[in-house]
Every structure is written in C-alpha cells, then in structure tokens.
Specification:
about 850 residues; mainly alpha; 24 helices; about 0% strand; copper; respiratory chain; cell membrane
Length: about 850
C-alpha cells in the first residue's frame, strides 16, 4: 500500500496541538451556535434526546397512573388520547432515533480515524431542524392541542372529519421537520463511513459498530421518505382538501397505512441495529477476545436491513389484505429471526470462548440479551396470522413492542453510555449507583411489561382510557403501574449517576476498559480535531495490536500532522480498500445552518397557522440561505483558496472529480428516489385498488408537450455531461456558455411542463386522480427549477474563477441532479401521460 506522509514530523507536539486547536477549536458565547464540530453536535443531539426522553417518560407515567385502577377519571378521554399519542411519538421520533444518531455522530469519526464528519454544516442543520421540530411538536402539549390519533396517525381518524383541531397538523408538520434532520444525518453517516476512514482501513477491517451504523444510515435514507410523502399528502388533504385518503374522491385510507409502515417497520431495525452495534462492540472488549464470526455478523446486518423492508404488511393483517399476501409477509416476518439469531449466537459464542468481566456496561448487555430474546420470541408469535388476529390491538402488542424497543434499544444504549462515559468526561461512573439503577430498571421493566402480555391475552384492548371493575384486568394493571414507577426510579438513578459522575467520578485512566478501537486513542475528553495525526490501520484491533499507537498519534508521527495551511483537513479514502485518494478540506463554523433551520421553522409555523403567504416568503428566504451556504464551497476564498499540499500528498478534494460532495449528492438522490418511488406506488395503488378511483376518459396531460419538455431536459443533461467530460480532460473552453445553454434548456423544460399543467385544468380538490397528478407535476417542476438555479450558479462561479479545469469538482455534482431529473421526468411522463392512454381506467 502506498504510504502517505508517514515520516516522523519534526514538530513540537505541543505547538502542533495548539495550532490545530486554533483551526478546529469551538467558539464560546453566542457564536457557539455556529459550531459544526461532530463531537459537540453529537453531544447536543444526545442531551436534547434525553430531555425529550424525560418528557416521554412523564407521559408514560401519566398513562400508567390512569390505568392503575378501573373507572379512573384522572384524565379525560381526549387528554388520555393526546398523552398516549405524544408518548409514542416523542419516544420514537424525538428520542430513539436522534439519540442513536447523536451517538453515531459523536463516535463514528473517532472510530474510523477521521477528524470530523464529511459534511459538518449538514450535521449542524440536522441538529437545529431536530431541535425546532421537537419544540414545535411538544408545544402542542402545553396548549392542549396535541395529536390524539395514535402515534401512527391512521386515516381517517387523523383526517379533518374526525380530527378537526390542529393536533394532526402539529404531528405532520413537526415530524416532517424532524425527518429532515434524520435524513441529513443518514446521508452524512453513509458518506463519512465510506469515504473518510483512515488510511488502510479497508471495509473488512472496519469496526463492527461502523457496519451497523452504515446499515442504519442507509435504511434511514431509503425508509424515511415514504413517511415524508405520506405526511405531505395528509397535510395537503387537511389544509386544502385534496382527497388522497378519502374513498368518495377516489382515495383510500389504507394508502396511509402502507406509506406509514413502509417507514415504520424498517424503523424498528433502524433503532435496533445501532444498539446491536453497541453490543457487538462491548462484548469482545469485556470478553477479552475478538468477536467470533465477524463476517457472519456483517452478513447478518446486511440481510436484516434488506429483509426489514419486506415486512411492513404484517402490521396490517387485519385490514383485509389478500390471503396470499398474508402468507408471504408472515413467512418474511419469521425469516428475519435468522439474521437476528446469528448475532445472538455470535455474542454467546464470544462470551463462551472469552473471559467475561461483569463490569457495569456488561450488566446492561446481559439485561439486553434476556429481554430482547423474549421480545423476539413474541415477535415470531405475532408473525403468525391466526395468532396476530387474536391479539391485534391488545396490550399483548404493546408489551411485545416495548420488549423489542426498550430491550433492544434502551438497555444497549445505557450499556454504551456507561462504556463511553470516560471518553465523554474523563471520569468513571459509580459502580454502586449504576448497579442499583440497573436492577431497579430491569425488575421494574419486566414487572410492567411481562404482566402486560397476560393483560393482552385476557383481551384488554390498547388505547382505552379506562376499564370497568370486574373485567379481570384490575390486578394486572395495578402490578404493571406499580412496576412502572420502580422502572422510573431505576432510570432516575442511572441519570443521577451520569450527572454526578461529571463532578464526583474518579478520574479515568487512559483506555480504562482496554478496548481495541481507535476512539480510545483520543484524549479524554477528546479534542475538537480528535487526532493530531491520522494513522495507517490495517487491523481490526489497532489498539490491541499496537498499544503505543495513541502515543505516536499524539506526537504527530502519522499522516496530516500539519496545520500551517489553516485548513480543516482529513483523508479521503477509497470506499473499499481504504487507500488514500485525496485530502478532504472541511468548512469551518457557520451561521448558515442555524439561519436556514430557523427559516424552515417559520415555514412550519406559518403552515400550521395557515398563513400561507408568510410560508411562501420564508421558503424563498430559506432557499437563499441554503444557496449562499453552497456558494462558500470548493475554491471559494472561505473554503480553500490555496490548493497547496505537501510534496507526496494527494490533492485537495475540490481539485479532483470525486470528492465527498459527489457521494453526498448521490445518497441524497437515493433518498429522493425513495420519495419518488413511493409516489409512483401511491399512484398505481390508488389506480388499481381504490374502489372509487376514476380515470378521465381523455387524459388531461398533453403527451406532446410533456414529450417536448422531456426532450429539453434530456438535451440539457447532454450539454452538462459533455462539459463534465471536458473537465475530466482538463478542457474548460466555453464552460460558462455551456452552463447557460444547459440552464436555458432546463428553463424550457420547466416552462413546457408548467404549460402542460395549466392546460390540464385539474380539479385537485374534487378527485384523487387530479390531486395525485398535481403533486407529481409540482415535484417535476421543483426539481427542474432547482437544476436551472444550480446550473446558473455554476456559470457564475466560472466567472469568479471558482470552477474550471483547476477546480472541476462541482459540475460533476450538478450533473447527477440532471441525470436524476431526466429519469424521473420520463417516468412521470410514462405513468401520468402514456400508460393512461394505453390502459385506460
């Protein structure tokens, strides 16, 4: 392998540390809002997630108080519905996923030997979208206008007819806002893991935790867009009356369930996989040996991620799905037990062959193994259609879900927090308080939810605010409620332990658990730049194989131990082999992510209050902020005006054709493609299934105009591809004119598509057909307009000298969008204009 910049650096390590701190250090005071560093943002995600966890926990206590005795009037039915809906929503959307994403954001760069995530401003935008979205959603509790249709918001319960207040709107807009954050983090993590591992860390040498996070991030990218589409459609139905889910207009309420569970079931594994990654990280460390069957675990992760997208219908066995489909999804649901079992057996084999030390983190891991296996067994029971019918919508399902999610996520999460606490703070937690916290939590959890299985088998339905005395459910509900307060006491003790350890914990020695992965090569707590120098790693256990590695890294004896250029730098490596390709230079702290998120928050609030003009104004403002942010990239003076590197080092990524921005755009387009395919699924589903769907006798969309528009976008794409090919060959003559020509062709496409829409004379509030068609055309117009704007900006950047043969990177990124637009536009033409003419209604 080519060795890059490996000679010993003749720097004073202390001076180098100070120089790097000057470049990477975090500002204080109000300017701390501009921080884009992954360590700080990861901690912010986790702290914010814990705040929402406390809110969700208090709501759960209210629920258990209400159900402790029969015929209780502690809460009214409406308030109870709001509390249960918000408990599920807060725990799933504002705690579980953001918390695990925060942990991943904090750990991944440290584990793979990088100094930061690859798009740090995107991380910052994601955090503020999460924060603002969470505040908007939880504020509905204060004004007693929280959503009350269940955390899955089934239509028609959540539709205007049965939920006329703003509760459903708070959910739809707030959750969509939060999902921007989740998808942003997903994109960020995928590209960072694939392209910024340290030199030599091939995929098969990567820590298992990074494999789990890679799978989770890809699942977020693919799994979240269906729910975003569903939320957009339901909000359009509620706000302006477009009947996507109303039978009378040609819609179907079951479409919502399909879109929700296309997201909802993979979400279970999105939550489980990072937690399993924590377990796969901790067990080898405390067993004192490498994990058994590394390759089997990686295969199990990939299989589980794939299968999880084929199970969503098992949540819908009782809604009238055809028997053949039920049999298929029942078998698929049981099949997912295979990769799960592989991991469980690998963990057990590693413990069996090692010498386990039952430290505090391992106590939580053992609790996880017991609870999660029980939850998995009840999951197999629920996969059987006859049993599913019997216990559907009972407390048995509630108990199963908590065994899987709390056992499968919360216990490993606490194990991980205790394991990495010394890295966060440099101090050790209290063994005594921690053990008390564990046993109270473990006993309280099982006392609450094990008993709830029996309550469900006795027939108690979920989501009822009270029950009559003499039903036979009294003693079980009372025991569950008492145990839930024991559970709360355990969690409170854990949180108290974590809070106190920052002040009273014993100082931790370096690498206190004798771990094998690179995050423990950091100082404790870590510096803003993670590592003074970036090592070559060709083993899965770098700190076990070279215990002196942290010392040599801190002395600057490895790669990129230079700060005189003033840039934030790290390696850009091959996604498979880990060979160094280029030096990635990262942007510094910025106000733009905060400004953009704040503008989007105003859009969200304006839509909520139906002030659409203000929403439109702030959409434009948010767009301006985002475009201004994108302007400061590449060869811009604020990014990297000086392309100089040390002799023997690779070039800066902005001077190549394959930087991380290209990968980020590709992953974003995968998410976008998932959204688009969900739209096509909805179109064909309603066309073929909805009983009142009506296809017009004469298709309203002009095939001729749409075809000419498709020809224009194709021609524009050809122009872009030609100029990108020229840049690859270091030719940039006529570059600016080519950009403007492509933009003109794109504008022609937008104009023609807009004309076709105007001529179609749609009635989107009258028929579902017209409403779905309108959404598809608006989607095409938005993407066409975006391509025109970005292409014009590229032409302007050529004039400023930011783009050219010397800096050819950005046009390749824009070219990806053009290719995407060509494919999706012609698919739309086929679905909306050609097939209706061929098949008819």
């Amino acid at each position: 392998m080519k060795s890059v910049n490996q000679e010993a650096i003749e720097h004073d390590p202390q001076q180098l540390h100070e120089d790097l701190h000057t470049i990477w250090g975090n500002p204080k005071g109000l300017r701390s809002l501009t921080i884009v560093n992954h360590t700080t943002l990861g901690l912010r995600f986790m702290v914010t997630g814990m705040v929402f966890f406390l809110i969700g926990g208090i709501l759960a206590m209210l629920v258990r108080t209400q159900l402790a005795m029969p015929d209780q009037n502690f809460m009214s039915p409406d308030i109870y519905n709001q509390v249960t809906t918000m408990h599920g929503t807060v725990m799933m959307f504002l705690f579980a996923i953001p918390m695990l994403e925060g942990l991943a954001i904090y750990l991944i760069p440290k584990m793979i030997g990088a100094r930061d995530l690859v798009c740090p401003r995107l991380t910052s935008l994601g955090y503020f979208c999460y924060l603002f979205g969470g505040i908007i959603l939880t504020s509905s509790l204060i004004i007693e206008m929280a959503p009350s249709s269940g955390w899955f918001m089934y239509t028609p319960l959540s539709s205007k007819e049965f939920a006329p207040d703003l509760g459903s709107d708070f959910w739809l807009l707030g959750i969509t806002f939060v999902e921007i954050s989740a998808v942003s983090a997903g994109v960020e993590l995928v590209v960072s893991i694939l392209r910024t591992r340290t030199q030599g860390m091939a995929l098969h040498k990567m820590p298992l935790f990074a494999w789990y996070i890679l799978a989770m991030a890809l699942m977020i990218v693919v799994g979240f867009p269906p729910l975003i589409l569903g939320s957009v459609l339901l909000e359009l139905e509620r706000a302006v009356g477009m009947p996507f889910f109303q039978i009378a207009g040609g819609g179907d309420p079951l479409l919502w369930q399909h879109l929700f569970w296309l997201f909802g079931h993979p979400e279970v594994y999105i939550i489980f996989l990072p937690a399993a990654g924590i377990v796969s990280t901790l067990i080898p460390v405390f067993a004192g040996r490498p994990i058994v069957g590394y390759g089997w675990v990686v295969a199990a992760i990939a299989i589980m991620g794939f299968i999880s997208f084929g199970l969503w219908v098992h949540h819908m066995f009782t809604v009238g799905i055809p028997q053949l489909a039920q049999a298929f999804f029942s078998a698929a649901s049981m099949l997912v037990a295979v990769p799960t079992a592989i991991q469980v057996f690998v963990w057990l084999a590693t413990l069996w062959l090692g010498k386990p030390k039952m430290k505090l983190p391992m106590l939580w891991v053992m609790g996880f193994l017991i609870i999660f296996v029980c939850g998995g067994l009840t999951g197999v029971m629920l996969a059987l259609v006859p049993f599913n019918w019997q216990v559907h919508d009972t407390h048995f399902v509630v108990a199963h879900m908590h065994y899987v999610l709390v056992g499968g996520m919360f216990f490993p999460l606490i194990a991980g927090l205790y394991y990495w606490l010394p890295l966060f703070s440099g101090r050790m937690p209290s063994e005594n308080l921690g053990r008390w916290g564990f046993w109270l939590t473990f006993l309280g959890f099982n006392g609450t939810f094990l008993i709830m299985h029996w309550t469900g088998l006795l027939g108690m339905p979920r989501r009822v605010y009270t029950y009559e005395a003499g039903s036979g459910w009294e003693i079980y509900n009372l025991l569950s409620s008492v145990s839930s307060f024991v559970l709360s006491a355990g969690i409170a003790m854990v949180l108290l332990d974590i809070a106190l350890h920052f002040r009273f914990g014993k100082p931790a020695k370096h690498n206190p658990w004798n771990a094998d992965t690179l995050e423990w090569a950091n100082t404790m707590p870590p510096s803003a730049y993670n590592f003074v120098s970036l090592p070559t790693v060709e083993t899965r256990h770098p700190l076990w194989d070279d215990p002196n590695l942290p010392h040599t890294m801190a002395k600057g004896m490895h790669g990129l131990a230079v700060a005189s250029h003033g840039r934030r730098e790290m390696w850009g490596t091959d996604p498979i082999t880990g060979k160094v390709r280029e030096i990635i230079h990262l942007p510094g702290n910025s106000w733009w992510p905060l400004f953009a998120a704040a503008a989007l928050a105003v859009v969200c609030i304006s839509l909520l209050t139906r002030v659409y003009a203000l929403a439109g104004i702030f959409v434009v403002i948010a767009g301006v902020f985002l475009l201004r942010w994108s302007w400061e990239n590449g060869a811009h003076p604020n990014a990297a005006p000086d392309a100089g590197v040390k002799p023997g080092d690779p070039p800066l990524h902005s001077r190549t054709m394959d930087g991380p921005g290209l990968w980020a755009m590709a992953v974003f387009l995968i998410a976008n493609g998932s959204f688009f395919l969900s739209y096509l699924f909805g179109w064909f589903y309603l066309w073929t299934v909805s009983p009142e769907w009506q296809m017009p006798d004469i298709p309203p969309l002009s095939l001729l105009i749409m075809s000419i528009a498709g020809g224009a976008v194709l021609a524009g794409c050809v122009v872009i591809e030609k100029l990108v090919r020229g840049l690859r060959q270091q030719r940039d003559a006529g570059l600016r004119a080519s950009f403007y020509l492509a933009a003109a062709l794109g504008a022609l496409q937008v104009g023609l598509a807009g004309w076709a829409l105007w001529r179609a004379d749609l009635s989107p509030t009258q028929t579902t057909h017209d409403a779905v068609m309108l959404v598809g055309l608006v989607y095409a117009l938005f993407h066409g307009g975006l391509a025109v704007i970005l292409t014009v900006l590229q032409g302007m950047r050529v004039g400023y000298g930011y783009v050219g043969a010397h800096a050819p990177f950005e046009p390749a990124v824009v070219a990806l969008l053009w290719r995407y637009n060509v494919v999706t536009f012609w698919l739309l033409v086929g679905a909306l204009a050609i097939l209706p003419r061929m098949i008819g209604g």
